[in-house]
Amino acid sequence: MTRVFSGIKPTGHLTLGNYLGAMRRWAEVDQHRSDALFCIVDLHALTVDHDPARVRRLSRQATTLLLASGLEPELCTVFLQSHVDEHTRLSYLLECVATDGEMRRMIQYKEKAARERLRGGSVRLSLLTYPVLMAADILAYGADEVPVGDDQVQHVELTRDLAVRFNQRYGHTFTVPRATRPEVAARVMNLQDPTSKMGKSDDSGPGIVYLLDEPDVVRKKVMRAVTDSGRDVEYDREGRPGVANLLDILAACTGGNPESLAAVYDSYGALKKDTAEAVVEVLRPVQTRHRELCAEPAYVEEVLRIGAEKARASARPTVDSAYRAIGLLPPV
Ligand code: AQP
């Protein structure tokens, strides 16, 4: 059976981008057709300036939202990265295979390091090495597929390179995984700046639809989305990124196709109105289930406990064989 692994960082409140680009597909498709593991990658949240209490809060919230979005612990494994030591054990070995130049070429590193410097902060070494930990997250489980949005594809490519290099140098140890992208909404853009990704750790609140935004807040944000001075509704990602982003969101929420939807509208106002309502409808069941799960914290804790046990048992043999292959003696 195909093994699928993917993760989500508790660095902010989860967004419509996380949902349409990743979470929805995990729940609707991946958990049903594969042996799937979904991880709240809390160690990655420590790579930038963070408040410990907030990370704890966001980790619980991300778990609850993953379950609310439809992940079923009977069908897949849901767990916290920091509960399974194999991730950091393997990460060190992969650091011995990766190069400094590879890390510095990562687009997310460049963008996030620049953001940290702009805020007057220093750049943590873990921000530079984070793609290696991500590679360990994936390789520890022998994942065949990694369903991600566009922004993570480069990191999955790096994971493939590290797996191939390790296998060539030390003998076959890792499955070489591949990234899979959603057909629509692989990159949901910020509503106020449609040339940047809708990212949960951005500060620009009005441009980001959060999964727990009230319907009226969603409507307001979508109605105020930046478009352009034109009038015709056309799907042109380069020339009219704001309108294209709305069409992508509408298509992802209604199951349509952005190009054909463009032909249906003769004004930006009507497009925005329908997009807002489509988003409200997509988020409604997630929000309802999230409220129910908030009343069951013991259930959520139990999901994480069982998930960590299953994940540990699954990762340990691969990580142990990587330790042996690279030249380390087993403990006596
Ligand atoms: N805007 C997006 N459009 C489509 N997919 C997206 N994803 C994230 N944003 C979009 C996908 O959601 C999954 C989980 O994301 P993550 O938490 O690992 O990464 P992130 O959202 O990129 O989070 P950061 O780095 O903490 O903060 P921001 O969001 O500010 O960059 C991934 O599959 C991702 O592709």
UniProtKB/TrEMBL annotation:
Main localization, broad class: cytoplasm
EC supergroup of this enzyme: ligase
Listed GO CC annotations: cytosol
The EC number(s) this enzyme carries: 6.1.1.2
A GO molecular-function annotation: tryptophan-tRNA ligase activity
Ubl conjugation recorded as keyword: no
Binding residues annotated for L-tryptophan, in chain numbering: 137
Source organism superkingdom: Bacteria
Pfam families: tRNA-synt_1b
Binding site for ATP: 9-11, 17-18, 149-151, 188, 197-201
Motif 'KMSKS' region location, chain numbering: 197-201
Matches recorded under CDD domains: TrpRS_core (cd00806)
Motif annotated as 'HIGH' region, chain positions: 10-18
Keywords, comma-separated and alphabetical: Aminoacyl-tRNA synthetase, ATP-binding, Cytoplasm, Ligase, Nucleotide-binding, Protein biosynthesis
Catalytic activity field: tRNA(Trp) + L-tryptophan + ATP = L-tryptophyl-tRNA(Trp) + AMP + diphosphate + H(+)
Function of the protein: Catalyzes the attachment of tryptophan to tRNA(Trp).
Subunit structure of this chain's protein: Homodimer.
Xref: PANTHER family: TRYPTOPHAN--TRNA LIGASE, MITOCHONDRIAL
Similarity section: Belongs to the class-I aminoacyl-tRNA synthetase family.
Protein name: Tryptophan--tRNA ligase
Lineage: Bacteria, Bacillati, Actinomycetota, Actinomycetes, Kitasatosporales
